[in-house]
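Open question from group meeting: does this chain pack into something compact, or does most of it stay loose? Before anyone orders reagents, we agreed to write out a predicted structure and look at it together. Recording both the input and the output here so the notebook holds the full record.
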Amino acid sequence: MKKLLACLLSTLFFIGFAGCSSEQEVLTFRVMTHNLRFSYNAADTDYGDRRADERMSDELDFLQSADCDIIFLNEAAKYQDEILQEKAESLGYGFVRESDFADGVANYNGTKADLYSARFCNYILFRKDKFTLQDTSSFSLSDNPSDPHAPFSRMSYNALWNEEGRPRSAVWALLSHKSTETKILAVCAHAQWITNDNGVNWNQEGLKVLAEQIEIAQKYYPESKVIFGGDFNGENISAFDPAMYKGVNTDASLKTFENSAIDHIFYSASGKHTAACLAGTLALSDHFALQATIEFT
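Structure tokens returned:
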């Protein structure tokens, strides 16, 4: 009897030890961000000599061939926005979006801004076979982020309407990974590029708001892993706490726009990225896409 009990205890100890030493499941996500280079109408040829509908057809092929799990898109103007809403599902993607203009928006910084036909949209595409959408919201990169279409109130008229041309916005999605129920808080933003107006670096201020709003959203979903990206219009990004987030392209080695590394992907510091590269061609846009493979355990 003592020998049997000893044998059972030994077996249980071995099983427990083996269970403790077994490797945790690794979740791997392919993520991409791409600035589309806006087009308002199908026949527009404001980027090189290619019509917007030709570029967009190639962009859809590119999105499908890239086969990423999460995609951030910036500068989806009126024509591209309409095509994405129509075609995303056929590519296998669900989506959330936010425009910098909405019907009825008026009197921001001295300008009536009911310019929905001139909208730029930020998109988050997510593979419908891998994720379910659980929540979403949007905000502006401004001193009034709860209004998703507001600019910084102290930006000069010239900086906002003549140089930037619009407020800047962001959108987030809480995604649930179907096979593991892991929660991913995905955030897409397009930051200001003005760095000296009224004595303020609006690019830095906008990215600070982005960091603050991500932290606020994560308080509601503390178990979520965070992945965020987009055209942040700068290198050497310092707005995000390195104890909380790691970045793809923080060394500015992947030049996405001309000779600048201004497109970025960040993720929770508990993860790691195992690959990163440029993708796409300049026939699609004036930006290359940035791709990364991110792992969480």
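Observations to bring back to the group:
The longest strand covers residues 131-140.
The mean pLDDT is 88.
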